[in-house]
Design brief:
By secondary structure, this protein is of the alpha+beta class. The protein has 2 domains: 27-125 and 133-205, 3-Layer(aba) Sandwich (Chemotaxis protein chec); 240-254 and 262-307, Roll (Surface presentation of antigens (SPOA)). The protein contains 10 helices and 10 strands. A 6-stranded antiparallel β-sheet has the order 1-5-6-3-2-4. The chain has a 4-stranded antiparallel β-sheet with strand order 7-8-9-10, with no helix packed on it. Mean pLDDT is 76; it is low at 208-228 and 303-307.
Amino acid sequence: MSEISNNKKIYQSSELLNLIKLDVQKLGRPYHKLPKLLKSCFDLIDVNFVCYFLKKYRMNISLEDIQFNADCVDKNVEVYGNEAGHIGFDLDRFLLLNILNDYYGLNRDDIASLLPNLKSPDELTQSNIVPSKTEERLKNKLGIELSQVILNQEKFGKQLESRTEHSVMIGKWAYRISFILAGGKGAFHLFLDSGNVDRLLNALRHPQEFGTLKSYAVLTKANGGQGASTNMLETLPVKLYGKLSSLTLTLSQLMELKKGRILPISLPDSIPLFVGKQQIFSAMIAEDRGKLFFSEFQDITSEIKHD
């Protein structure tokens, strides 16, 4: 006799497996591709953040990571409206106070007087101290401007203006997008309803127009050399990353390495420079007053040989 299978097909409510529930409204819509879509714009969003905070608040802020959560419930957010639907905004209060510090020139003693006995961001988040009117106004301003910086990327089509919606209460959001800032400076969160998610996903139906390195080359060729990469460089400041040197070792050589060992490495004549992951220039290394600088920049496009 064959053994009876132990595979269950009927479960009690207490024994349910971790199954993904299908939402009828999402059928036929690639909601799962939104993280990949936005992360493809990571470098452009980072450049826009650097420019925004540097020009508006004289702060050196850059993006470290983008995290995503679907079907989030949160009623305590700032709600804004646009032509596509509604969006929500929230940020760490510790970050908000640091922006206030740089924007209005508050010193640490002033912040300490506003929030006594609170020293860490976690304690600040868990506190019940009511935000001031100045904090609320700045938070509303940040929500409108940052949402437009993120959602009005060229690849997403027509630019939309955000407006404050005081009378609208939304509890459930299709997506929460968390923007983690480098250096442990905090994070802010953007909440999207289904209308705004559909607007972003619409870019997947027209991928040939915007957003990829291939499209940069097409736009550059069509515009006589003035492409999307040039437009990005015009929105300075841009971070240049240089690869000074590299050394190839076998696994056995790596296993033999010990603390304090000095490896002989020679610098190449030309250093490749990157904006994000794309190499743009090559340059020389120069020393002045004990500091190293990049000099004698060369555009790599001028070095390409054509048959």
